[in-house]
Amino acid sequence: MRVVALDFETFFHKKEYSVSKMGNWRYVHDDQFDPYLLTAYDGAESWAGRPEDFNWASVEGDLCIAHNAGFDKSVTEGLVELGRAPEFVVQQPWQCTANMCAFLADVRSLRDSIKVLEKRNISKAIRDDMSGVQWKDLNATEQTAMKEYAVRDAIECHSLWTKYSDRWPEFERNLSSLTMKQCRRGVRINVPLLREYIELLGSVIFELERSLPWTARGAKPTSPIAIAEECATVGIPAPPVKEDDEEGFDLWESTYGPKFAWVYAAGQWRSLRKLLSKFQTIEDRLRPDDTIDFSLLYFGAHTGRWSGGGSGLNFQNFRKVPLFLNKKLQVIKPPTGLSAKLLAAWKAEYVFKSIDERALIIPRAGKKFILADLSQIEPRVLAWLTGNVELLKMLKTMSIYEAFARQNMGWRGGVLKKEDADKYQMSKIQVLGLGFGCGWEKFIKIAAGYDVALTPTESQLIVSGFRETNPRITRFWATLDNAYRKSTKSDFRIGLPSGRELIYHDVRAEIRQKKNRTTGQFESKQVITSEVALRRKELYGGLLAENVTQAAARDVFGEHMLTLEEQTGDVLFHVHDEALMETELEVTTQDVEAVMSVTPDWIEGLPCAAEALEVPHYTK
DNA sequence: GTAGAACGCGCC
DNA sequence: AAAGGGCGCGTTCTAC
User: Comparing C-alpha atoms, which of A117, A133, A15, A18 is closest to residue A125?
Assistant: First the structure.
């Protein structure tokens, strides 16, 4: 099949009008939309000019490629709608060299791709300088320069494909194609509910802002300077930096919160503003059929996971728990650890209104939602990678938490969850929290996230106990750590079960200043660094184990997603191990679970399981 | 004036 | 010797 690289240059304005802020559909359907230049290159000939002057028939039946093909394809669709390009172009296959480069070298932009793969520097200055500039604003010389620049990009894109596409497996290309399809397809929005939420949230934020002592003095709501000044005025210490000292921050909040309501307010304001911005973004992007498109980045993380960015709206961080409001429109939170029944009672008594952002996503007419997640995929993969065959066998008849308790916590009884809920919970936090080398301090925080309070001594005992009774896991860390250290002065490569590789470039032993956690003093420490996605990172055994596990789990999920899309229904979007499906009414949760329970043939012996639920809207 | 660091907050 | 990680985006403030 002949391959044609296409590259559009379109009008943009960095701050007000750009794809990265607006997403593909909204950008293409704005009054300012102006694709003033199209370049094409088929490996022999290049062309540059107005898109409507292009001989589209000449690319019929070709594979169209582009760097960020999701964008160029959207532009083409926009042109089709305007009658300026023929329909067949968007029906034939497209593929994306930016996605290919993300897979091959953990980079996306054309500039970075050429830098890493071709060891050359190309300039994007001409394009960067076009912010806010119209084609007609350019003189003849500038227009020629622009054409030459754009042709060069089309040629670079084509060359990348020619040179490297055979290293991009079919499976990955299919995931890339599916990702582009999902982003364009988008989801249906409950528009009346969206409008209700926007209005309600606006009032909540207004009330909250009014309650801050420093906003009256003209300071910004979350200004750290203004907050520190207020603290000084009332004679309390300023809050510690949360990122550096979370416990200190929590202590500060719980100490002074009861006395000064504004202690919680800055954090709350951030959280609410974030939510409101998201709602407004969704509203801005509504298409005529009440759906919106979104962006998911194929291979957005170096482990291969997708990331949720790229267009100012992240579909991978919808709040799980709704926002609860009392009659005064203040945010309230249920006490931790309530049963479903008690939570319902709490809501009935205290909650005036709630805001559930996940409820905004609803099925299209005549379709239904099935929400499915892959059960404990990471600990299962870790057990597989470390050869814990006995544990994997036990999963045929019990949960991984019960199996772990039998293997490591001396459980000899029946169904653990029913017979000893506390032990079950203790097993769960260990399985989820200790597989990748976390220490006792961090483990206290992880446990707290599951409503389990641990003292330092308890945490230390659990962590050391876990390491003693799980030598396969600690050996796995050590093996990776040793192999990584031995790769100094070269690249470190880890083969994954699916056949692809994780690569850490240019491994180096370095001396860095590190804070000793007990003394608080900085000391010289040796660390082993390497380059990942053009950034130098410190890595060690536990972290490498985590990367490998995450990467392998992603591949398993990818297999399932392709099958689901092919056999079961539309996979609207996904968040690492859960997929929201929009299906025909006759499709059952069992159909979905059956697909997600299949073990890919390259990871024989890994038991996969899934839980699928029919839901009226996206939910936790 | 704008870019980017720093920080905080949302998810798995 | 010990060390959980992977993301994106909104706001504020500093540096250029």
Answer: A133
Please name which of A159, A155, A161, A139 lies closest in space to residue A47, comparing C-alpha atoms: A155
- Say yes or no: Cβ of A314 under 7 A from any atom of strand B: yes
pLDDT value of position A24: 94
Contact A88, A58 (CB under 8 A): no
Closest by Cα among A105, A141, A145 to A125? A145
pLDDT of A517 reads 64
pLDDT tens for each residue of A90-127:
999 999 999 999 999 999 999 889 989 999 988 888 88
C1' (C9) to CA (A13) span, angstroms = 20
Tell me how crowded residue A428 is: count the other CB atoms within 10 A of its CB. Answer: 23
Separation of A270 CA and C10 C1' (Å): 8
Cβ pair A459, A447 in contact under 8 A: yes
Q: Which residue is nearest to nucleotide B9 (CA to C1')?
A: A271
pLDDT along chain A (620 residues), means of 10: 95 86 92 95 96 96 96 96 96 95 92 91 84 90 93 96 96 95 95 94 90 86 88 89 81 88 87 90 94 93 90 89 91 84 92 94 96 95 96 95 95 96 93 92 87 91 94 95 94 95 92 71 83 88 94 96 96 95 97 96 96 94
In the prediction, which pLDDT does A526 show? 87
The DSSP element (H or E) to which A508 belongs, if any, is strand A501-515
Q: Counting every residue, how long is chain A?
A: 620
Provide the pLDDT for residue A566. 97
**Which chain C positions come under 7 Å from a protein C-beta?**
1-14
**Residues 211-240, chain A: which have Cβ under 7 A from strand B?**
239
Cα A390-A410-A387 angle, rounded to 5 deg? 20
Strand B: list positions under 7 Å from protein Cβ.
2-3, 6-12
Alpha helices by DSSP H, A165-223: 170-185, 191-210
Reading the block at residue A610, the tokens are 């899934």
∠ CA A130-A132-A137, nearest 5°, is: 75
Strand B proximal to A270 Cβ, under 7 A: yes
Instruction: Measure, in angstroms, how far nucleotide C2 C1' is from residue A437 CA.
Output: 9
Count of C-beta atoms within a 10 Å radius of residue A456 = 10
Q: Measured in angstroms, what separates residue A546's CA from nucleotide C9's C1'?
A: 25
Query: Which 3 state secondary structure label does DSSP give A140?
Result: helix
Of all nucleotides, the one whose C1′ comes closest to residue A240's CA is B7
- Strand spans (E) along A516-609: 522-532, 535-538, 570-574, 578-583
Q: How many Å does it take to go from CA A295 to C1' C9?
A: 14
Tokens at A501, concatenated: 């590789």
Cα A182 to chain centroid distance, Å, stands at 15
Q: What single letter denotes the amino acid at residue A50?
A: R
Contact in structure between A79 and A85 (CB atoms under 8 Å)? yes
Classify residue A212 by burial, with Cβ atoms within 10 Å: 0-12, 13-18, 19+. buried
- pLDDT value of residue A593: 97
- The model carries a pTM of 0.95
pLDDT at A20: 87
Q: Tell me, what DSSP letter sits at residue A488? A: T
The distance (Å) linking the CA of A357 with the C1' of C10 is 17
Strand B atom within 7 Å of A84 CB: no
> Do A571 and A373 form a contact (C-beta atoms < 8 A)?
no
Residues paired with A532 in a beta bridge:
A535
